[in-house]
Design goal:
By secondary structure, the chain is of the alpha+beta class. It contains five helices and four strands; from the N terminus they run ααββααββα. 47% of the residues lie in helices and 17% in strands. Helix 2 crosses helix 5.
């Protein structure tokens, strides 16, 4: 009988502990809206077009899901996936894809993470200090030009991302 009471007490205590642990507060976070993602992509496209570059632009939300995509006329097919991978790299590491490339180059054995690319053109999108997405640009004649276009896109919404 004592064994039964002990087991019943243990089950009761365990049940209370589990219910207490699983009762969590709701998360409150800022999210990248479709309108914001499109505005950032359009801003990047305007900057690239002003330089005469035909690019692909991918904007990802904080979960790594495609939120907006633009592909200018006349650019190469490789730029489609590469722009997404640049954005994914910036989102994953919360720094530019160029910075990740430099860090990987300094490692004797860099990690092999699918979708990561060490080329410039990917930039995290921050609301204050929180990374809420990323943009990747591919197709300009140099990676630093891709990154400049990405930064120009983010700058279009700088006042809303504070």
């Amino acid at each position: 009988m004592n064994t039964f009471r002990f087991a019943a007490s243990a089950v009761l205590i365990f049940s209370i502990a589990i219910s207490t642990c699983s009762a969590q507060d709701l998360l409150s976070q800022r999210a990248l809206s479709l309108d914001a993602a499109q505005a950032i992509a359009e801003g990047a496209l305007q900057k690239c077009r002003a330089g005469g570059y035909k690019v692909s632009i991918s904007v990802l939300d904080a979960n790594g899901t495609m939120k907006a995509f633009l592909r200018d006329d006349g650019n190469g097919p490789h730029t489609i996936d590469l722009s997404r991978r640049k954005a994914y790299t910036a989102l994953t590491y919360k720094r530019t894809s160029a910075e990740t490339g430099k860090a990987y180059a300094a490692m004797p054995q860099p990690p092999n993470i699918e979708g990561i690319v060490g080329l410039g053109g990917g930039v995290p999108i921050r609301a204050g200090n929180e990374v809420i997405g990323a943009i990747g640009v591919s197709g300009a004649p140099a990676a630093d030009l891709d990154e400049a276009c990405a930064n120009a896109g983010i700058a279009k919404l700088a006042d809303k991302l504070k």
